[in-house]
Amino acid sequence: MILIENARVLRDGKLVQANVLLEENKISAIGDFKDKSDYVIDGKGLAVIPGLFNSHTHAAMTLFRGYADDMPLQEWLEKKIWPAEARLNDEIVYWASKLACIEMLKSGTTFFLDMYFFPSATARAVEETGIRACLSSAFFDFFNKDLLEINLKRVEKELRELRGYRVLRAVAPHAVYTVSLEGLKRSMEMAEEENIFVHFHLAETEKEVVEFRKKYGKGIVSALDEIGFLNPRLISAHCVWLEKDEIGLMARKGVNAVHCPASNMKLSVGRALNYPEMKNSSLNVLLGTDGAASNNSLDMLREMKFSALLQKFYYGSDSFKAVDAFRMATENASRAFGIKAGKIEVGWLADLVLLDLKKIPMTPCHDLVANLVYSASSECVDTVIVDGKIVVENGHFESEEKIIEKFSKLTENFFGQLKT
Length: 420
Ligand SMILES: [Zn+2]
Fold this sequence. Notes:
Helices cover 41% and strands 23% of the residues. The protein has helices at 73-85, 90-106, 119-129, 145-162, 181-194, 206-216, 220-226, 244-253, 261-266, 275-280, 300-315, 322-329, 331-337, 368-374, 400-419; strands spanning 2-11, 14-23, 26-31, 39-42, 46-50, 52-57, 109-116, 132-139, 168-173, 197-202, 234-238, 256-259, 284-287, 352-356, 381-386, 389-392.
């Protein structure tokens, strides 16, 4: 049992003075009550907010942070990332994921949706660091039938292994330029059978959209609709190059889109996700950092700011408000993943972040959500609680220095071998 005493709690966009009681992994009471608890957090000077959801990332790509910047997407993938990824192994993915989990926790993220190889290695990192996650088994088939069969067998095996961990699961066909329509169809069938999610990159660049039309003689979204790919279990990252009618169709089918503004700007995708139209159509929009190879950080506080800046820059100052960014990072994601977190309510999960209101970026505090989106940084994160357990205390994750040291050594070896 944990009691957070005399804190300011963010509820319905406003800060209210209250105590918050956590029992097991849930919020059991909020208000002005007296309670004896084994563990009391003095909440004076702290704001309690729901933990943030990073709804699209490749956690283990912390390995590639700063490795190959300032290149166009396709060239970056083909010349730098994919050849290096061919040398990945379970151990390096585990340590790179562990670093990512700590980076996310320390910047207020309590849940992430991942897409990468060796997902069991990431699952071990998730369990050991205490963060919550949905992990995907990712694949490409490069339009080769044999490769599709081999990969689907691996995906089935990896999904079975993931059952042994405290994680949600997803199948992740990479994108339409790396996976055949048959591969996408089979992924969705597998997801339906297992009752899990499908995690996918959609309409990230103009090239992807133009080449798809050239190859198949139709738009991506209508082709996806024909194979039964559009439904609420689909979490599609980027969704930049979509037309109005495609957004409308995706909204009607209950698909979720993930805004990845930093990655989109850095890889120069040429447009911004059309949030005004998505809002109009009631398409559920989430927020994600993408991997540290293209971001280069996994900090959702920064990502909320990037989303607001990009939207305002592209669609006008009244197109987007701080609260839109905050909802993308909290309740919109909780709805998509069916997790009772992202709001501070009795009976909801105890996935909470305590922010230090005495830090400069939080001072003064006219509007907490505005501070969160436009000025907060990870230095403001004091305590992080996931599933009722304290995982970050005084801004520190236990044994983080050792983990950073071990990861740095392994990284040196990995890139040393890559040159030979
Ligand atoms: Zn991605």
